């Protein structure tokens, strides 16, 4: 595993490596949302990605970067769903075993997808400590190579390719990009991609009020825990890592928090107006942009819709 922050060449190499295995997802627009926000918005539709989420990019880059020796005992990770699917999917591509630790309250749609990709699931209580402890037990027992869901430079480089494509395909000089933040893998990758490929583009993040650790970390200049965890955005519950945080601190302009009500409203806009199935976590950056739209009137804005893995039996509207 690399111990160096991805540079321009690293991200370009990651893009070449994963390109045969991913969808080059479309960039779509909405006249309704443009009018609502008085801005020109370009949506990167990673909800249409393989496994239904951008996480396929980082998972593939991490696993395709491993040697045969590192793969021989399989790979393991912990995740509430989308990274779990990404690792199971990617491991299957190279014929490796995937041992996946998932919280016992993970969405059924994500559990089923991991199983369908051949992942062997071990459930644990939904705390960061239990996830880490369970993964360590599996690593000790199996010798599997651990791939962290976000605090891993190969994962970050893979996630950076979504913003790289967005900036290339929008055919505009974007003034800013909005991404969600949980552990920071996508946000740090997005920030690096903007820094290298479009330095004038500013990067902002949206975060749920009910998992607001990144915004506290950003303000205090040290990694913080959220004061409480209660949000519909189940994919954004983790806190920043020692690899993602310095990149975010250096290259992200600001982080905005949004309520569950604002997330659900944005999710509904995407479903009803754009006919896009987007999960709550994926609607967070749009919610953050709408909440703060007066700051960005007249701007050209990229928004990454990160995933579409929704339990259709438990829709919030």
From TrEMBL:
Top-level taxon of the source organism: Bacteria
Keyword rRNA-binding belongs to the record: no
Record-annotated Tryptophan synthase beta chain-like PALP domain positions: 19-307
Keywords on record: Pyridoxal phosphate
One Pfam entry name: PALP
Named cofactor requirement(s): pyridoxal 5'-phosphate
InterPro entries, per database record: TrpB-like_PALP, TrpB-like_PALP_sf
SUPFAM superfamilies: Tryptophan synthase beta subunit-like PLP-dependent enzymes (SSF53686)
PANTHER family noted in UniProt: SERINE / THREONINE RACEMASE FAMILY MEMBER, SERINE RACEMASE
Protein name listed in UniProt: Threonine/serine dehydratase
Protein's organism: Dyadobacter chenhuakuii
């Amino acid at each position: 595993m690399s111990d160096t922050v991805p540079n321009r060449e690293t991200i370009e190499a990651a893009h070449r490596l994963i390109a045969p295995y991913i969808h080059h997802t479309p960039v779509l627009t909405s006249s309704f949302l443009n009018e609502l926000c008085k801005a020109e918005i370009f949506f990167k539709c990673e909800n249409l990605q393989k496994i239904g989420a951008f996480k396929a990019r980082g998972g593939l880059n991490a696993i395709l970067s491993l040697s045969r020796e590192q793969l021989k005992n399989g790979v393991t990770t912990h995740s509430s769903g989308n990274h779990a699917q990404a690792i199971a999917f990617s491991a299957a591509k190279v014929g490796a075993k995937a041992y996946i630790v998932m919280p016992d309250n993970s969405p059924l749609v994500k559990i089923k997808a991991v199983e369908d990709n051949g992942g062997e699931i071990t459930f644990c209580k939904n705390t960061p400590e239990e996830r880490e402890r369970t993964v360590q037990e599996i690593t000790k027992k199996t010798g599997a190579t651990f791939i962290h869901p976000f605090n891993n430079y190969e994962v970050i480089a893979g996630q950076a390719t979504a913003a790289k494509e967005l900036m290339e395909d929008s055919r505009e000089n974007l003034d800013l990009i909005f991404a969600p933040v949980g552990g920071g893998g996508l946000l740090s990758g997005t920030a690096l991609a903007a820094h290298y490929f479009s330095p004038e583009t500013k990067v902002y993040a949206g975060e749920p009020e009910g998992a607001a650790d990144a915004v506290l970390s950003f303000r205090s200049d040290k990694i913080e825990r959220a004061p409480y965890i209660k949000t519909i955005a189940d994919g954004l519950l983790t806190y920043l890592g020692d690899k993602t945080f310095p990149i975010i601190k250096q290259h992200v302009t600001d982080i905005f928090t949004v309520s569950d009500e604002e997330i659900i409203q944005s999710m509904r806009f995407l479903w009803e107006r754009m006919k896009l199935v987007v999960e709550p976590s994926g609607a967070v950056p749009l919610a953050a942009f709408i909440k703060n739209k007066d700051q960005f009137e007249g701007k050209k804005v990229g928004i990454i819709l990160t995933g579409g893995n929704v339990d259709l039996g438990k829709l919030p509207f």
